[in-house]
Amino acid sequence: QVRLVESGGGLVRPGGSLKLSCVASGFAFGSYTMSWVRQAPGKELEWVSEISLGGGVKRYADAVEGRFACSRDNAKSTLYLQMENLEPEDTAVYSCVIGGWGSDGPRGQGTQVTVSS
Fold this sequence. Notes:
globular; 6-stranded mixed β-sheet; 4-stranded antiparallel β-sheet; mainly beta
């Protein structure tokens, strides 16, 4: 059974940092492109980042380029999202997704990130 479990969210002040993790199980993690998405209340799902199978190719949404960094550890079946210089507009539930940009693959339940002073 495919399972994606995110963690690492929380409340942080503007300018702060957080590192999210997504532990995957039930499929061959290292054989799939993976992505992070986010959804704020009342807003559509927004793609945040994508990372290739080996981690060598990454893509980011314009809104997070230069502030967020996606990585993966295939030996641990874990996906990461390092978020720096967080802004109130980054407040959302962040989830990992199996597949690349725009994928309709399985998605985890997500972890809440709140950026507020």
